[in-house]
Structure formats: structure tokens, C-alpha cells
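Summary: Need help interpreting a holo structure output

Steps to reproduce:
1. Submit the protein chain below together with the SMILES for zinc ion.
2. Request a joint structure prediction with the ligand placed.
3. Inspect the C-alpha cell block that comes back.

Expected: a single structure record containing both the chain and the bound molecule.
Actual: see attached output.

Input attached:
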Amino acid sequence: MIWIILVLYAIYSGIKIYAAMAEIGYISQAKNWKPVILSAPNYEKAAGYKIAVQKFTILSTLYDTALFAGWILFGLSYLSAHVIFENTLIHSVALVILFIAINYVLTLPFELYQTFGLDKKFGFSTIDAKTFFFDQIKSAVMFILFGGAFFWVMSAIIASFNYWWFYGFLFSLGVILFINMIYPIVIVPLFNKLTPLEDEHLKSSIETLLKQAGLKSSGVFSLDASKRDNRLNAYFGGLGSSKRVVLFDTLIAKLEKHELLAVLGHELGHFKHKDILKNIASSALMLLIMFALFGNLPQSLFESLHVKKEAFSIMVLFLLFSPLISFVLMPLFGLMSRYNEYRADEYGSMCESKEALCSALVKLADENKSFPFSHPLSIALYFTHPPLTQRLEKLGMHFSKEDR
Ligand SMILES: [Zn+2]
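--- attached output ---
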């Protein structure tokens, strides 16, 4: 049984590494094409960044595979044999948190390299060590509080019901909805400063746009994203009465007013088409599949791992396997999401104009140094947004292929 699991994981890692290598080959070629969308220096930098990220992905995939094998072969049985608490609930909560904490420490070097090596080298990351440190502390405290409470309830559910997986699913879904609701008003302000938009002119244009779309929101805010990263973004977050428009200060600084409104129009398109609800519904379906799967694991699996079939081992297996399962389901989700992006673009260009959205997208890509081309395999496996060239072509821009 153990070997079947390890082979499955190796296949998953193999596909990821193959896709990364194909992407590196593709971009190494595309790098020499005549630059489109981005300025020549940014085009080259973007290609360099993307290749560096893929190399990093290969390395971290290999490392994750070793980590997974370590847990499966001896880590789990060691942990459950050596860390024991009398109270069964405390036992499973403490072990799951310990498992996550060990994983966090073991993968921290990769996160440090990504933030302070890679993203600094290419000029994205502006975060200083102090901000990073306090971010980590805040996340850890929140994780222990809320994660601890979550695993506590989940352990109790697993221990109490025969069809625990169904109740566990309902509970997780409730938590996801709750987080979506409180995220913009409770969690974001813990990490960033939100200030009501000062530019009255822009604010009233945005409010007109919202009214046209028939949406109520609890305000338009600027977020000090620049203290961590130079990349631009905007979102329309929250559920119900917590809905609000959030513009990154980096976006306000770089875009003209009509471009900003086009980007916002795109975000409103998502709301108008109920894409956020659709996303939550498809995540719920994904979650239900996973719970049904993990609620019916055979006893023999636990025996071959040398652990008892209990809340702790079930939850940890869930955590260990979730990347693999979402990897399988992601292409489907991506397909739906890419279709929704085209429709949101249509709506955004209707709010302002195709030209405004095009020039905003081009500016975003140039500032974010996002390379406009990708290998088809990467697109199919991971992309939630269509490649920029395809989005711009749908909006009426044309790119000649003669120069390649
Ligand atoms: Zn979008």
C-alpha cells in the first residue's frame, strides 16, 4: 500500500517537473522573439524571472517529494508513537499542529529564498526583514488560535459520527464562507492599512460604476501594498455586507483614471456574473469529493503506515494528499476560470472601453513583468487567467507572428 502511494506521488511530481522543464524550453525560445506588450528590457527580465521561478519549482518539487516520502515512511508513525496526550482531543489537535509546524520549519528556507532572493533580485519584493518577521508571527498566532479551534471541532466530529466526512464537509464549508465574509474587514487590516479613497473625483466615478452594476459596497479603499511588493492589483472582496472595493496603492499610482475604471469594471464583471459564488461552489464540490474520499480510507492503509486510524492520522493524510488531489482537479477549475476571465473582460470593456482595458492590461503586465507567453501544458495545468496575448486579442488587439 505504501508503495502505491509513493508511486502516485512520484507521478504527480514527475508531471510537475516535466511541465516546468517544458516551460523553461518554451520561454528560452520566446525570449528571442520580438518583444510584445512589454518594453524590451522588461520583456527580457520577465522571461528571466519566469525561467528562474520554474527552476525553483523543480527544486522545491523534489524537496517536497522527499518530505512526503519521509512522512509516509517513518515520520507519521514516529510522531504518533512518541507524542502522546491523555485526552484524545488534545492529542489529535496537538499532533496536527505539530505536523504543520514541522513542515513550516522545513520549508521556511524555500519561502525565504522566494521572498528575499528571487523576488528581490527581480525587483518585485519590497518587504523588509522586520515586516516579514511580524507577518510570520501574526500568521502563526492566528493559525494556532483559529487552526487549533478548527482542528478541535474536526477531531470531535471525526470521533463522534459514523458519517463524519459529511458533517466535516459541512463544517469546513461553513468556515470557508465565514472566512470569506470576515477576510476584508478583519484579516486584511491585520496586515495592511486600508484608507478610504481620498480622490473624491475617482471615488464618485467608482460609485457610479457600482450603481450601474447594481451593487452595494461598504466603501472604496486604498491598500498600502507597496510596503511588501511592487506588483499592482485590485479586488472586489467580501461577501454580503462586507463587500468592498480595494485598490492597491501601487495600482492607483501607475494607472490613469479611465484604465483604473476598466480594471474595476473587470472585477465588477466577476461579481455581476456571480463568479465568486461559482468559485465557492466549485471549491465546495472539490471539498466534498475529498471528504468522501478521506472518510472512506481502508483500514489497511493505516496499518501499512503503522498508525492508528484516528482523527490525527486522517487529518494529516488529508493535508498530505490535498496538493495531489487539487492538482488533478485544477485543470478543470482553470478551464472554467479562464472562461470567466474573458467574460469579465467583456464587462470591463463595456464599463469603460476596450482601449482603456487593453492599455490597463498592458501596463499591468509591464509593471508586474509578467511574461506574455507560456507553454500550453502549463496553461492547461495551472492557469486561472488566459495568457495576456489571448485576452488582448479577444479585445481586438493583434499580434503579428511574422517576427518569430
Ligand atoms: Zn479577473
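--- end attachment ---

Reviewer comment: The first strand starts at residue 194 and ends at 196. The pocket of zinc ion is lined by residues 266, 270, 341, 344 (CB under 6 Å).
Status: needs-info
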